[in-house]
Amino acid sequence: MTTTRKALAGLLLVSAGLACERPSPVRHSVTIAVPYEIDTLDPHAKDQTAYNAIAAHFYESLVSTDGAMQIHPCLATRWENPDPLTWIFHLRPGVRFQNGAALSSADVVYTFQRLLHTPTLQISGYIQYVTEASALDARTVRIRTARPVAVLLSKLRFVGIVPAGSSFSKS
Amino acid sequence: MTSVMDDLVWIPLYLDENVYGVERSVRWIPRADSYILAAEID
Predict the structure, then answer these.
(1) Which of A22, A64, A125, B31 gets the highest tally of CB atoms within 10 A of its CB?
(2) Chain A interface, best mutation among B7, B14, B19, B22, by max A CB count within 10 A
(3) How far is CA A3 from CA A8, A44, A50, A69, in A?
(4) Nearest Cα to A87, choosing from A165, A142, A149?
(5) Is the pTM of the predicted complex or chain greater than 0.90?
(6) Helix residue ranges, H only, A56-132
(7) What is the pLDDT of residues A68-77, one digit of tens each?
(8) How many CB atoms lie within 10 A of CB A170?
(9) Residues whose CB falls within 8 Å of the CB of residue A115, separated by 6 or more in sequence, listed in order
(10) What is the value of ipTM here, to two decimals?
C-alpha cells in the first residue's frame, strides 16, 4: 500500500466531520486508490487536481460544488453583493476544525491574508482580484475585489479555509 | 460541466476521459472535476 493509499484509507474517518457534507456516523474505513501522489497537505500550495482533491477531504471552502459543478453553500450559508465589488459571507454556525477550534471570521480573514501576501502559493491565483478580506463580526466576512468578478464563487471553491495562525511545511 | 462552460472559470484544453472501477456494493457517482471524495461514497 502506497503512502497515498494509506493516507486515503483514513479519509472517511475525517470526512465524516465535514460541515457541508451529509453527516454520517463512522462505521468503516475504506481504501481509495487514486492515480496521484502528493508531497504536501498545505491546501494552498499547489493548484493541481491531485492536491485539490486530497485537500478537499481536510479543508472546506466558503462554497462548494456538487458533482455537476453547481455552487452550494459550505462554510458560508449565504452571501450577498451590496455592490459589484463587495461580497458579504455569513458563516455557518457550529463548525469546528479538526483541532476543536470553532470556525470564525478570523480564520477566513487569515486564509485570505495568507494568500494575498504569499503569491508563491498557487491557490492565490483564485483570488487574483480580491483586494481585502475583513471581519464584520465573528461570523460575517466582507471581501472586496478590484473589479467585478462574476465567477468569484466558482473560484472560492478552491480556497480551503485554514485555522488562523496555521503554518505548513513541505513534507 | 454546463456551469463551467458557461462561466468559463476554466478554459478546457483537452477532454480528460476517466474510467473508474467500482465494486457493486459501493454507491458513487463520478464528478465532473475528477475528484474522488470519500464523503460522497456510500
Answers:
(1) A64
(2) B7
(3) 9, 21, 14, 29
(4) A142
(5) no
(6) 105-117
(7) 889 999 999 9
(8) 8
(9) A44, A121, A123, A124, A127, A159
(10) 0.71
